[in-house]
Structures are given as structure tokens and as C-alpha cells.
């Protein structure tokens, strides 16, 4: 049996086991980047020859902060930079420093104020019960990414399997104790800047011009340098196709004439969460798109996941784009 035939067989078996939609079956063989590359971003191979050439001892500053850090501190997974200690409560140890070797500091990826970035979740203001349940799902092997090559979700699986129940509870109580703030500016357009993936996110190519957006969402920093320095006050812009917000509103609020289930039934009338169900209003559309697709292909199987089965079963990539565009456009 050659590789192509084997891939088809595996995809078909997974479709039977997990009830995959036909459009999602090829992902089982190729990874989610083959279907939604704009959401499951993969870094290009690192150039040969070593480091970046930047001075690791350079003293860095960001606007609105009196704090300074050395460039070498920007990649410390166990002591992330906290540029604005006044924009969040005091961090507990699991958020500020984590626990070596596998429980990286929550504040590194999700930022000290929980606002998050396109390659991960915004956890500020989410129900503590929901966050704790997701960590249990990771620990029990019930939640993984549809694209194992994407670094941040893969790292989250490692952290989730290593974190204790007490650590998860502490982090959840911290992030749920304060509100998520407006973070993403959604712009409908037919043309977008040409981008490349760097640091698991879309970065505009200098002098690269424009290209058609197609059936994509391109989420990129408003101020690249600040985002690359992990400034927790540096936000994002999400380019979405013209008309996507209105099409998404129809799907989210009415079910789109049977294409899906109205999201408001579980996520609340304003999509700001209901009980243990997470808020989705104003959150990263890249992240929302990944979760919809992960649920569709059956790699999220934890508590409450069954409630999403009917909602995602028949979604096309265009539907996912429209839903994510609409939810991101809302006030959180």
C-alpha cells in the first residue's frame, strides 16, 4: 500500500470513528494547514547560519511603560516580560513563572493580562470553570490540535498534560477575575497586504503590495515591533472578506436556515458567555476558526464538546470565515 492510498484509508477510518464532515476528511491525512492555512499558521524553516544578529543585551522599551528588559528576556518561557504591571492584578506563580520543565508561564503566550494573540487563546474574562475543564481535557488526552505542526497549540498540549489541577484552578481564577478588553479591529476588504508567517502569525511583507483576500481572514499586528516584544497593550487588525460580517451574523443568530445552530443559545444573547460556556465576542477570529474546525474533525472531545457537534457538522470553510469575522467584530 503506497503512502497516498494509506492516507486515504486513514482519513476514511477517522471519518467513521469521529463522524467527520466530508470536507474535513483530507485533513486527517495532511494536517489542518492544508485546509485552512491562514488560521493554522506554520513558520517557514529557520534560515541556516544561526542567530538573528540582534544584540541579546540590547535594552528595550515600549510606549507607555517605564519598565525595561533586555532582548534576551523576550523568549524566556518561564519569566515573560511584563511591560505593564498596572494593567492586571498581581500574577500568581503559575502565570508569572510557571514550573519547569513543562509548565511554561501562562503569561508568556497569553500575556500577563490574558489578552492573547492570534496563535493562542484570549483567556481574560473567561469562566474559571471553562478554563479548568479545558486543562482537564488536555490532561486526559481529549483535546489536541488539528495541526500538530503548529507550535503554540502543540506546546499547550504539553503544558495541559503536565499542569496539576491546583495549578489550573489558580490560573483560571486569575484570568477570570478581570474583563477582556477590545483587542481586534475588524476591517472588511477585497484586498489585503501580502504577508508571510513569522512567529506563528501573519506579518506584512515590506514592499510586498496587496493581494486578493479570497476566503481567508488575515489577522496581523497593528504595531509589529510592539507585538514582537510581547507588549500586552499592542493589539491586532483582522482583515475579513467584504460582506463576511453580515453573512456571519445570519449564521450566528439564526442558524443560517439550518446550516448550523444559533450560537446565542449557548454562548448568550451577546456572545459574552453563559455559565461555563466561553465568551466568543471580540475574540481572535483566527483562534475561533481553529476551534470550529478542530471540533468539526473530532480532535476536541472533552466535556460539553458534544454540544457543538450539530453546530459545526455542515460548516464550510466560507462559513467558518464568516462566523469568525462576525464574532470578532462584536464588543467583548
CATH class category label of the largest domain: Mainly Alpha
Main sheet specs: 3 strands, mixed
General form: globular
Mean pLDDT, rounded to whole units? 91
Strand fraction equals 5-15%
CATH superfamily label of the largest domain? Cytochrome c-like domain
Helix content: 25-40%
Listing every helix as H and every strand as E from the N terminus to the C terminus, the arrangement reads HHEEHHHHHEEEEEEHEHHHHH
In whole angstroms, how far apart are the ends?
51 Å
Round the Cα radius of gyration to an integer and report it.
20 Å
**Coarse structural class:** alpha+beta
Number of domains: 3
CATH architecture of the largest domain: Orthogonal Bundle
Q: Report the uncertain regions.
A: 1-28
